[in-house]
Specification:
Layout lengths: L2 H13 L3 H6 L1 H26 L5 H4 L19 E5 L8 E7 L2 E7 L5 H13 L1 H11 L6 E3 L13 H7 L5 E6 L7 H20 L4
Antiparallel strand pairs: 1-2, 2-3, 3-5, 4-5
Helix pairs in contact: 1-3, 3-8, 5-6, 6-8
């Protein structure tokens, strides 16, 4: 199975989102899970050494179906992902996500809590130059983008530019879109990108392994 097959399967989910269809295609999704598992271990074992990531595939490889116990949801997810995180600090995390639109990779918060962003602002205040230099270094890779939604009411600060924007984010993550022509190289591109993001991950998370 190729990574492009995962994207194709998720496109089909958009038009066939039912348990009945899933049961017909169950072997396909088993194959997809095996591919995601191989991808997870290939990168996770290396991130364990570089960033203190813990290996826990049960929590880190998404299943194709939603949990139906808590009210109505579409039976199948239209996105599948693997995440890499520490038990000590589950967020931020590294991620590789497949969707009907393609593949994206990165690091950050899925949905940061106010306390997590308060901690981030404290880290910026403690050493704004260090944080600014780290951002500048990460963004030398022009394919990496900082994503976040700002609070309507701004926090008081003397920062300018991107650092001021980040200071007012509700949540934050760093993202790279992998073009279709590069899908065969997802593993290598992800690893190279994660290496670029490891110093920022350690700064945000406070993990120094």
């Amino acid at each position: 199975m190729e990574y492009s097959d995962i994207v194709s399967a998720l496109k089909n989910v958009q038009n066939n989102n039912s348990r009945e269809w899933y049961m017909q295609e169950k072997e396909l999704f088993k194959d997809i899970h095996m591919v995601l598992e191989e991808l997870y271990f290939s990168i996770g074992n290396r991130l364990h050494e570089k960033a203190g990531i813990d290996i826990n595939p049960r929590k880190s490889i998404s299943r194709p179906y939603n949990d139906q116990r808590f009210g109505y949801k579409p039976y199948l997810r239209e996105n599948l992902w693997v995440t890499f995180q520490s038990n000590e600090c589950p967020a931020p995390a590294f991620f590789i996500e497949f969707s009907p639109c393609g593949v994206r990779i990165g690091m950050g918060y899925y949905s940061a809590t106010p306390a997590q962003m308060k901690s981030l602002r404290a880290k910026i205040d403690h050493d704004p130059r260090k944080f600014s230099d780290m951002i500048e270094k990460v963004l030398t890779d022009k394919e990496i983008h900082v994503i976040g939604e700002q609070y309507k009411k701004k926090f008081a600060s003397n920062y300018e530019g991107l650092l001021k924007e980040i200071y007012n984010y509700r949540s934050i993550y760093f993202q790279k879109l992998i073009l279709q022509k590069d899908w065969d190289n997802i593993e290598q591109i992800s690893w190279d990108t994660f290496l670029e993001l490891v110093p920022m991950y350690k700064l945000i998370s406070g993990i120094h392994s």
